[in-house]
Amino acid sequence: MSARRLIDKYGSIDSILAKEPRIAERVANLDEFRVMVSSARKVFRELPPIPNGVLLEQGVWDDAEVEKLMDEKHGVRFVAPDERSFHEDDRWAEVEEVEQWRQPG
User: Fold this and answer.
1) Which helix (H) or strand (E) holds 5?
2) Are 42 and 66 in contact (CB under 8 A)?
C-alpha cells in the first residue's frame, strides 16, 4: 500500500505506526523516527513568507548543502533505506501507481 493511501486511511504517520505493526517494525528506532517526523512538520509550519518585490529564481541544487541545512536548522536527517524497509516489490508498486496518473486520458 502506498504512503498516500496509508495517510488517507489513517490520517497521520503516528496512526499508521500505531495500527500497522508490519510498518512500525520496519522502523529501526521509533522514538528517533518520531522526532524526525516532528522536525519535518516544523519545517513546513514555519516557512517564512516571501517578501514583497522579491523574485525567487532556481539556483544550483546541492544535496550536501540541503542535507546540512535540514539537519542543522530543523533536525531532519536523510537516511538511506535498508533492506528491511525498502523492498524491490514495494518500489515497483509505487512506480506503477504513479504511472497511472501520468498517462493521458
Assistant:
1) helix 3-10
2) no
Residue 54 identity: V
Cα–Cα distance for residue pair 24/105, rounded to 1 Å: 37
Burial annotation 70-99 (CB, 10 A radius, 16+ → b, else e)? beeebebeeeeeeeeeeeeeeeeeeeeeee
Domain extents for the chain? 3-102
Amino acid, single-letter form, for residue 42: K
The model scores a pTM over 0.70: no
Please say if the pLDDT value at position 81 is more than 60.
Answer: no
Q: How far apart are CA 31 and CA 14, in angstroms?
A: 11
What letters, b where the CB count within 10 A reaches 16 and e where it falls short, cover 39-57?
beeeeeeeeeeeeeeeeee
Average pLDDT, the chain: 77
Contact 40, 71 (CB under 8 A): no
